[in-house]
Task: structure prediction
Amino acid sequence: MIHLSKTDITNMEQRKRATFINALSGAKPAFLLGTVSAGGNTNCAIFNSVLHIGANPPLMGFILRPATVERHSYDNIRETGCFTLNHVPASLYQQAHQTSAKYPRTMSEFAQCGLNELYTDGFAAPFVGQSPLQIGLRFVEEHTLPVNATILIIGEVEHVFSTIPPDQSGHIRFDETANVASVDSYYTQSFLETLPYARFTE
Result:
């Protein structure tokens, strides 16, 4: 077993340190975040920092890097008040990864990366047509974290479109969707089992 102290981590080369620390939380679901500006420019960006916030009301969130440079997704959400989160099918992980490139604001990642823009039910933000599970959210609030100036964006779920039907208890299988560790290592996941509600008994 290796041991890395805070000093060891601090002394790592910058890029290696960022990759290593990002990887410590493990492989997490890969999402494509779909937005559109008030002027109609669409944006699609990969995220692995999506969080469950609450079920009633249904809330989800994600973490954005500090707004010290252009953040097209952030600007679009603040302009229009809505966004989509789209699970990445395992077959699409390479195109999804390409959305992390720094495209100009007027150039859509949907078109550049072979992703289908899908609009439905009058919802302003675009869904990813190839995604098996698409979630439309309305912006609720944001919080800048004092520790490092990252931004927590919280949205309320207004629409869910899915080709993966939940079972009778609400569980969803994610065998065919992609996970990502750090920002560039992709995985699939395998279902083990659904366990009963855990109770303490003497």
